[in-house]
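Convert to structure. Protein one:
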Amino acid sequence: MSKILIFSIVFLFLCCDNTKINSKTIDNGNTDINDYYKIAKNKNNSLQERYEAINKSFSLVKKGGRDTLFLKILYLKGVIHLSSKEYDSLFLYSKNLRKYAKRINNQSYLGKSNYLLGYYYDEITNLSDSSFYHYNISKTHFLNINDSSQVGKRLISMSLIQQNQSDFFGSKETITEALQYLHPKKDIKHIASSYNTLATNHRKLLNYNDAINFYKKAIKIILSKKDKLAYKNNLAATYTDNKQYKSAISILESIVKDSVVLNNEKKYARIIDNLAYVKWLSGQNETEKTLLEALNIRIKNNDKRGQIASYTHLGEFYSKNNRMKASAYFDSVIRLSKDLKMPKAEKDVVKFLIKLYPKNVELRDRYTILQDSLYAQELKVKTQFAKYKYDDKQKQESILRLQKEKAEKDLAYTKERQTKIIYLSAFILACITIAFAIYFFKRRAKILKQQNELEKLETIYSTEAELSRKLHDDFGAKINHSMLLVQNDSDKSKLLDTLDELYHQSRDFSREINEVETGVNYKNELFDMLSLYTSTQIKLYTTGSKSIDWSTINDLSKIVLYKVLRELMLNMLKHSNATAVKIAFKTLFDGLQINYSDNGKGASKMAMRNKNGLRNTEKRIQAIGGTIIFETDKGKGFKAEIKTPN
């Protein structure tokens, strides 16, 4: 049983591990869309296998939505139809690809579909203007998604069309633009192709030195042996045009025996034809056999463009010694050029025929007609290509302008919205802040009010306690002393003195306890009180009181000021031994400032802290929102600065 289990596990593992998909999996009923797509994309499979796989993949995917997977399969289907030379199907599926890509605005597949259509018009129908148009549209779509490599490749295709239509200046401009988009490492092959195209343009414009330099640059960087040989052949042709025959012969002899050339009859025919032609130009006459060999190979392979080159070279070869043969070969060029719609080839051989038959007016007229027709056609093509590029540029600028306007509007809207949000947030924050401030100040006012009430109560309790102490210690003691004098029948004069002190002391208590006059007589009562605590030994000096409008001072401030000054005078009288007291009054913006000073003995900071009367003055002043600052030291007098609100 265990052996069977192990065998089953191994079998399942081997089955699961065999992930490679090939054509045999197509018909097992378990293959999905992606599997078929992978088979179709794999170039190692045969074209027939790929063809069957893409059709099955397409039949499955078209049942679903028209998403990116559908576009991917549709594009590959078009490519495989191209490989199968089913050009009608290529055209049909390329148009469908463009339609569905446009529906979901897929820029990548819009670029690919227009590329396929451009290729169809270029290679299959030879409609250069339609091909140029679609290549240009493809380029724009790839530009929209910043696929610079594809942009460069489309520009190469466009420049080749311009070159084939003899728009060499336009082709130079387009291929130069292409080089700006190609990646210096990833697109080496296409950069080399661009150099080759640029060199050919210079060659056609008779700028042979520039052409030679660009061909050499292409040969230097190209990795493909096949392309390198083609570029060397082009370089040899340029040397031939520039009458550098030795250089041309050297290159052609070095490549004619290459295996790539020998295994391709078309390439081999081109090389031996060019080599025989340049040798003939250099003065070697033993080239007829090779020229005929090249022609026969081209006829065998139905290479009609190659046949035009061979017939032209043979016509030139026989022009010097066999006018009939030369005419026959040139006539073959004219026939083929009409079949291939290549009037330039006809014009070139008509020019040779005019040399053979200088008196033939019909040939001259035909040459003039061809020349004018070609000029008109080239002008039309140049104008058409320029128009396509100009219209596309205008369209892109219009799109960019609209995008810019939209972006500016969106930015303005966003800024306006942000401004509104900021203002609204600021307003809400301000409301919250104001509400919090109102709550905070109300709460603070309530707390301060409670604190003031507590301080007032403390002041009252302190004052009552002080008065109680005075009544007990001073007044009570003197009453007991008087009673003892009466009981002992003491001298009446002593008793009278004691009773007089009791009277004055009781009057002071009464004034301290009773309400202070705060009306029009306040100033007089205040100064009477100050005078009461002075004598001939203590001088009182006051300044600034006349400038004070006492009616603007609130009653509570008047009462507190009265009692605080009385406490300071009492403290001076009892403890300082002062001989002079100075009190300066000053009006402030929001209240009064009173500076008290005496020349007494002062007191230490410790003694200050122990004086209950002075502590009471602080509490009284603080209770009404005022301040009092003491400044004293032992032996240096006593000062106090008082500030009270209005």
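Protein two, convert as well:
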Amino acid sequence: MDAARPRNSTANRRLAELCPAVEPGADERLNGPKRRRALIVTWGLAFVVDGLLWLGGRDGFGELPAAYWLMGALAVVVDARPYVVANRRASSVILPSICFTFAIALAWGFGAALAVQIVAVAVAGVRMRQPVRRTLHLALQHTVALAATSAVAALVSLRIGPRYDWDDALLTVAAATAWIVARYGLAAVVARAVAERTRTRWRQRGVEVLATGALLLLGPVVLATAQVGLAFVPLVLLALHAVHRMVRSAGEFERASRVDALTGLPNRRALHASVLSQGRGKRLALLLLDLDRFRTVNDALGHSVGDRLLVEVARRLAAVVPAHDLVVRLGGDEFAVLATRVDGAPGARRIAHHLAEALNRPFAFDGMPVDVSASIGIALQREPGGDGSTLLRQAETAMYDAKQRGDQVAVYGPDAAHHSPDRLALLADLRHALREDAPDDGITLFYQPQIAIATGEVVGVEALLRWRHPERGLVGPEELIRVAEPTPVMRLLTERVLHDVTAQLAQWREAGRPMRAAVNVSARDLHAGDIADRVEDLLRSYGVPADLLQLEITESALMADPHRVLNTITRLDRMGIAISLDDFGTGYSSLQHLRRLPLAEVKIDRSFVLGMATDRGDAAIVRSVIDLAEALGLRAVAEGVEDERTWRLLAEAGCHAAQGWFHARPMPASDLAVWLSRYRPVRLPRAALPSS
């Protein structure tokens, strides 16, 4: 499978930007005339600075011992191989020469150390092919760090000599701390001044500081070794090699942890790191792609073909995304594109349609064409400084909005009603209640009887969700569904409802009164594909026959992704679970879908039933739906029956069952038991029934 991974230059460049293995600044490495020009300027500046230092302290340099010149030479040599931490900025380059220049600053002062450090930085800059400005940036950081070290050493009169005690050791640690604070403090100030993001993962920064501290504290060891004999000083190169291996291994681990094993694309961690690393002036857009009907490919052709399809999708996306953007596989059949140069929602939509077109061409596997499409949610970074988690959450919400509306692309809008702070707070409370699963969480089920019109008998109930919020009071099912459905909380809510309803069905069956209960499921539940497994497990664990459970789906859920929904409800139908199409007449489902789907009944929306006694148009719609259901062999159930006249009109039209306040309001299971014991069927006069 590795051979099939995308090798395109865009993905590789962006991944290398997030976690390089060898050299920083690979996107700015100079070649040809620019490199020669940078080399001349860098060395010219180094000679000028060192010349000024020599002229300013000619006598002092002449009196320096051989140990100084040996350590200076080693500092220049080791900087031919600088150490790199896993990102691309100059502030993350660790020069091994600091081991020697820190020791020189402690022993012979700032000027002597700076003269060596300037030459060493020039060597490192030329070796890494950096522009002059980056080399100057690096030189400035180390100059300030050495100045801070020298200031601390002078303040406490620290000098490394033959008599070195515990106080001197602690003061040396203080000097090293001053070096680290000065260098990285300056780097952060400069990054902020040029509008670069300075936040870094703590583990990555920890490796950098640990390696820097190890190099600095090797300095006093080098000085002590020099007093024993200069021949032992080069032995410190072995310790420097060990530090280099530590830094390199940390970088390789960081790189590996940010790569998707199947496709070779950056993964979710890489996405978060890329969002954090963007400049403040950039406007970001995150496009979340969820493949449609991917489960069908896995079921029909096998998971190996599904994996090959994911690799090919990754290859196509990486091929059409420019180098300055990032393609990511989030997991499963979800991909994301982080666009760094967008001009608002119109520009993001253009990118989304471009990605959709790239997936429109069929994929060929062993001579078999496989068509793939994707629902795309777009989230725009409204303010600088946002993180990847927020963008992902918003893009996921937009993606589910697109699925529910039957659109391919949707943009997250913070001003929409379902994104209001009030609803977000309600969603957080609901998530907490579902995860705690406490007996007093306020989440309960009410049941409304469904009555056979011809006989007046109770043929089933519909389970309706209620939540008594500790502060808001009773929250109705419509509000709960609007809040939860675009989010992963919907899965938790459905699991809770299915569990409670199945447990109640088992109790009724044990009490000798088996009854069918209908449960509403959302588009998100049907798209997940595993709802059939969850239902099967519940029925088996409670010993409930499948024909006692009925699931209701809406037209919007059906049309958001008809093929995926068809696979799910077909499996449920084979298990013996009846499927009802809820709110029929209010959506836009076609007769073709009605003919193909394994439905047991259609429910006529209450908006038509309530008006059929006074509005001829509503009455005509209700009669037409009943006739259509009869022709297709489906039950017709009317919702919102609130008076006897409507009941009689439904009977004349041949409707099979009805529910509404005319017979009973929704009630808890305990009240339903009392109601059933007192209920006597209301039989209509024979004249009110249809002649058939």
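The CA atoms of residues 443 and 467 lie 4 Å apart. The chain has three domains: 38-256, 268-411, 423-678.
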